[in-house]
Amino acid sequence: MRIESMRIRSYRSFRVDDADLPAEARERLSAIRRFDGLRAAGCTERTALREVGVSRRTMYRWKAALAASGQRGLAPKSTRPRRVRRPARKPGDVEAVMAMRRKHPFMGKARIQRMLERQGLRLSVSTVGRILSRAIANGTVPPASLCEGRAKPKRPRRFNGWARRWRYGDKAERPGQLVQIDHMTVSRDGQTIKEFRAICPVSRFMVARAFSRATAATAARFLAVVAEALPVPLESVQVDGGSEFMAGFEDACRNRGVALRVLPPRRPQWNGCVERANRTARIEFWNLLDCDLTVEAVSERLLRHEFFYNYQRPHSAIDYRSPNEYLVAHEAAQPQCQMS
Q: How far is CA 191 from CA 63, 182, 186, 290, in A?
């Protein structure tokens, strides 16, 4: 806590606790102090503004707010409009939506809106959605996910451990970086196989193994296989939000020092390399497989397919070279360290 005194109208001292300020106000106050410190040290105004990272107009607007209202004046102003749109629905609209939802608990806002429109009640889809959202929050009606067999809605993943959310624009720049991992289920004649597949998006080098189950422990075992089979160091991996890539798999990545990036929900296109490799495997391997779907029978044939994929098969994405040929050319193109 710091005691400050300003010559305001009452000429009384007041206390300001930085911890009570909003985070944005503290950042602005820190920027002002760094700017003043740089100016006092002899830096030009342009240099000080560039180091702080704000424009001249913004800096002096913050300083004016600080002089006029103290540190509280640096808090961001409310963006709430002066005139807020009032709900246009009638008192009976909420009861009609609730009655339709209780009759059809699996229906969402669009279907309920169309059902009510057939009965002569015209509401927008957004209005129905707002009514349902408020009712679900209040516990008046359960979410539609209960009809899918879940006791409660699926909660978003919390990134409070080793894993981090994949950000738009993240892209592998060298072999071994952001290796994409996924698993798919293959069923035939009552038999089921879980296949895990990893592919380097730069070199297209692929590692695949067959398992009987798709669990976090299985995914952790597969990670060890990938780290050993990949001809380049494994720096980071990219996965979807499946449960098999949580818990033990996240711990395995931490223990190996491999960065883990998790894709947002319903974005398989950002895992495009491994998704395309899964399709290729279905066409070139699984459709031609002539043995029982057991781990023992599939594993040997899958290893032969992996060898063909990495060392013989031409890939259009890397100029019709095999992944091994690409890695050899990439290694030769790297500058060699000279011994002094």
A: 71, 20, 8, 13
